[in-house]
Design a protein that fits this description.
Layout lengths: L2 E2 H8 L2 E3 L5 E2 L1 E2 L9 E5 L15 E5 L11 E5 L2 H14 L6 E2 L4 E2 L4 E2 L4 E2 L4 E2 L4 E2 L4 E2 L4 E2 L4 E2 L4 E2 L4 E2 L4 E2 L4 E2 L4 E4 L4 E4 L2 E4 L5 E4 L4 E2 L4 E3 L5 E4 L4 E2 L4 E2 L4 E2 L4 E2 L4 E2 L4 E2 L4 E2 L4 E2 L4 E2 L4 E2 L4 E2 L8 E3 L4 E2 H34 L1
Parallel strand pairs: 4-5, 5-6, 6-7, 8-11, 9-12, 10-13, 11-14, 12-15, 13-16, 14-17, 15-18, 16-19, 17-20, 18-21, 19-24, 20-25, 21-26, 24-27, 25-28, 26-29, 27-30, 28-31, 29-32, 30-33, 31-34, 32-35, 33-36, 34-37, 35-38, 37-39
Antiparallel strand pairs: 1-3, 2-7, 22-23, 39-40
Length: 344
């Protein structure tokens, strides 16, 4: 599939600088661009490459002003990165999709499979399951009894959805992710730990993406809820009875302890740890490897472990770098004081 700069600009409401008939058929990083490729420039760190790239078309922000001649055709837009995402989504949607149910799949007689689905070999779908229109279940997917999946949701190889869990429409679950395993519930007794049955479910709303080997535990009672638009990276752990607000994003290896409520539009850096039975308000940013030990009101950025306000953390980090010099100075002052005492 080939597209001209004129067609692309029309789709993303862009302004062309250069040849409106320039054609592209693939995507490339700006530093690795070739003829026929479309690239983008959003981060100023990569600005040097726009003068040497071989890409035919480059998306740039409207405020970009070149310092010298550029051979590529530019398309100026409000948000180069966002426009790229829009174009890549369009390109992906135009690819032909697999359909049909493999004879090697195991599907219970009471399961309901809607139209235009793709069910790969060795998929297992349990009793009373419901699979929505246009879903794609790849090799080795397991869907437990009574689970329901909305329309146009994609489960990559070896995804496991436990019994009675709910997944919405337009979701993507990457390989190895597990939805609905038992929460970590054990009661300590004189003879060890007694398992507490986890009788709840997991509810995942629409437009959620879940990374490879991420686990979302079922609730002890009620539901663990992932609201619409949430994006979870690989190796994320969401514990029982958690609630993650709409459009919150978590990078790899974030761990959220049980019964925690997270607001909307929050951002969690890699390996952040969130303590249980607390709440985190909307628009909170938790830095990488940050450890929260209580509730956060929202609208704040925290760093460190235990987590504190980001500006305070930066000030303390500056003091820490000065500690060796301060220690040396204190020792010298102590020596001088002792000498003064001895002379008196």
């Amino acid at each position: 599939m080939k597209f001209t700069a004129k067609q692309i600009a029309s789709f993303i409401d862009g302004e062309i600088v250069g040849n409106e008939n320039a054609e592209v058929y693939t995507f490339a990083k700006i530093e690795e661009g070739t003829q026929g490729a479309l690239s983008f420039l959003a981060n100023p760190k990569y600005a040097e490459y726009i003068y040497t790239t071989q890409s035919s078309i480059v998306l740039v922000n409207r405020d970009f002003v070149p310092e010298k001649e550029i051979s590529a055709t530019l398309i100026k837009v409000d948000n180069a990165y966002g426009s790229l995402a829009k174009l890549m989504t369009l390109y992906e949607s135009m690819k032909p999709k697999k359909q049909g149910v493999s004879s090697l799949a195991s599907i219970a007689a009471t399961a309901k499979i809607s139209e235009n689905c793709y069910i790969a070999p060795f998929v297992v779908i349990g009793e009373n399951c419901e699979i929505g229109d246009g879903c794609m279940l790849y090799d080795g997917v397991s869907v437990g009894d009574g689970a329901k999946i909305g329309n146009n949701t994609m489960l990559y190889a070896h995804v496991t959805v436990y019994h009675d869990c709910r997944i919405g429409s337009n979701c993507i679950l990457h390989s190895g992710s597990v939805v609905g395993a038992d929460g970590f519930g054990f009661a300590p007794t004189a003879n060890g730990y007694e398992k507490i049955p986890q009788m709840g479910i997991v509810i995942i709303e629409d437009n959620v993406e879940i990374g490879a080997n991420t686990c979302i535990d079922r609730a002890t009672m009620g539901a663990t809820v992932i609201h619409s638009g949430v994006k979870l990276d690989n190796l994320v752990q969401i514990a029982h009875n958690d609630e993650v607000g709409s459009h919150t994003a978590m990078a790899a290896q974030v761990g959220v302890a049980g019964s925690t409520k997270i607001g909307e539009w929050c951002i969690f850096g890699g390996q952040a740890g969130i303590s249980g039975h607390c709440s985190i308000g909307d628009h909170t940013t938790v830095g990488p490897q940050c450890g929260t030990i209580g509730s956060l009101k929202g609208g704040e950025t925290v760093l460190g472990s235990p987590a504190i306000d980001a500006k305070e953390y930066i000030r303390l980090s500056a003091y820490m770098r000065r500690l060796p010099a301060l220690d040396k100075k204190i020792k010298e002052l102590t020596r001088q004081i002792e000498e003064l005492k001895n002379n008196n």
